[in-house]
Amino acid sequence: MTDQTTTGRTTDPAKLQEYLTGYDRILSDVAATGRRLTRDELDSRRVLGEQAAEAGHGLRALVSRHLTATRDAWPFSSAGTASAHSVLAAVEQAVDAFAEGYERAQRLAVRREEASRREFIDDLLHGRSDLGRLAERAGRFGLQLSHAHAVAVAVGENAYAETDPVTRGVELALVSRFGDRRILLTTKDGRLICVAPADEADVLTYFAKQAHAATDGGRVAIGRPHPGAGGVVQSYEEALSAHDLAERMALDEPVLRAADLLVYPVLSRDREAMSDLVRSTLGPLAEARGGARPLLDTLTAYFDAGCVAAEAARRLNLSVRALTYRLERIHKLTGSDPAEPFHRYTLQTAVIGARLLDWPAKEL
What is the pTM of this model? Predict the structure, then answer.
């Protein structure tokens, strides 16, 4: 006959007997004297409990074996002086010490697993480990790094840890929706991070929706998919760069995709050329009454509104007539007409450059 463990496996009772070593002797001695267990006896029970946990046996089956051994030894010798109450108190002591050791080993195993998971995540997101070894370790955490992956990063007002309710809530939502799809949800530097296979784009979209809501309107950035272990790092860095760009450009979209922002790093790659474009194209705006900022904000709103004057005026809380006057003023100062396609491209590129370089707040 076999016993069921707490993990659902069957275990031969004979294999559990070694974790009851000395228990029958303790019962006999207690029955004869009525004493309580000594410190050494309690320590021995704790050690056996730790060993049983490390061997992977279930606590329920082990407690059952203790109770069976107690029943088999009952009634004790008539020469004994202990009452049934004393014997049962000793049984309680022994089982409690055994369970304490078992649980201590379990907690230690959990801490080791958490430390191993954190080390893996740090190595994965920073590429500090040998890529081959990293790919081997990834299987333990549900990732197949031979495939392409993309990374989404959510940032909120607060810093989040793995055990925070926000993190657990987002994780529960993902598991409930997608089950086991080799998704890794974690945190890093207070940010929520989701790593998903490239062919599971709906996972990251759903993560973005859940994380935005759970972080009370936090921003989510999604990197492009890339193959291999190094691809996870690359996608993660793209997502972080998207967050940084959003701050610099004052972008208010709740979800940013690195694939949609490729023009910005291209434009900022040659800082000297960009500075020259901003100075030559927008520099004359500084001659306007009130400086360049109001007219620069006008251009920004105009381009963000798709060059629709009525929408741009609404965003700036101006009348259409006032907006039109500002556009005419810009045309006069710069020589470039925002309504003319060729001039519009130059002006819009210069406006993007000004936002990237934080002009006119900073000198070029």
Answer: 0.64
